[in-house]
Amino acid sequence: MTAAPQGSDDPVAPVPADAVALGDLDGSVSFMLRIAQVTVYDRIFSAEADLPLKLGEHTVLKVVGDNPGARQGAIADKLMIKWSHMTKVVSGLEERGLVERYVPPQDRRSVFLRLTDAGRHVVADMNLRLDALDAGATAALDADDRAELLRLLHKILGWPSATSS
Amino acid sequence: MTAAPQGSDDPVAPVPADAVALGDLDGSVSFMLRIAQVTVYDRIFSAEADLPLKLGEHTVLKVVGDNPGARQGAIADKLMIKWSHMTKVVSGLEERGLVERYVPPQDRRSVFLRLTDAGRHVVADMNLRLDALDAGATAALDADDRAELLRLLHKILGWPSATSS
DNA sequence: TATTGTTATACTCTATAACTATA
DNA sequence: TATAGTTATAGAGTATAACAATA
């Protein structure tokens, strides 16, 4: 990794493509989080492009399955998805027969969600495949690294640290 | 239904927003990276909404400033920005007088970028403000935590973990 | 009036691909 | 033919705001 010594006074000293320096940007947590997240998602989808669900869809379906009787908006809030976008995601999942909307009589403004049998099946399938893809995309980390990374991310969010995964 | 801590004074809500369970999702590196990144960006922009540049624009300008004579496409690749999007970003920055395009005579297909004086000024201002915002958004981390987090993110990416790249 | 969800618009960014102008 | 950049389109997702139905 050569440091590309370019004249600091030369206004147009060419820099080779692989010598672009990030400077201290790689010391920024926000920048590094973004680059790492984009890279990991990239790796997951380039490793296996024919997944039946997008990652966001899988997340929604999984949480719906784990929280029967939860309102649509409550799930959206927890997953930091905008309500307006949640409407589109749920509509798409409903059209594919993976989730059902249910308006409870005690509060007819709200919408409860629950998985269909097909939804349960797809989520179970995705769980298995994503576990492997997730691990593969972060294969550079050993078990301790991974646990430590998760602990730090939880700490940023103010979430209680995960037991173990 | 999962245990929902609802007192008798609460309005009837089977699963309140803060009682939605994530299950083992918070043990997924890809999920936690996404949630953490969205949260950090959220905090940065809710802390100070009147920033002169979007984060992506600042990143591009900063790297242009650190790499005089670098091609537009080389910078886009390094920052994992698509060329087609890079064209729009640079055009916007150029219209605002922050960056200049320069077509070198030795290869008239390529475009070199360099900051204008106004661009340099804006970047310097943003650097200062973002350093503080970045730290504020991750204030739950102490110095050791932050260094460790950066080390782990670098490791995922396969980047050298030292100070600068 | 406040809350829940929907619709709509604008904007950011990705994914593709076609296109130009060079090389 | 290949490369560098541009343009265009489709899609995901965010940011906002207006809106309807319900509480």
TrEMBL record, chains A, B:
Residues 25-158 form the HTH marR-type domain. GO terms for molecular function: DNA-binding transcription factor activity. It comes from the Bacteria. InterPro entries: HTH_MarR-typ, MarR/SlyA-like, WH-like_DNA-bd_sf, WH_DNA-bd_sf. Pfam families: MarR (PF01047). This is MarR family transcriptional regulator. GO terms for biological process: response to stress.
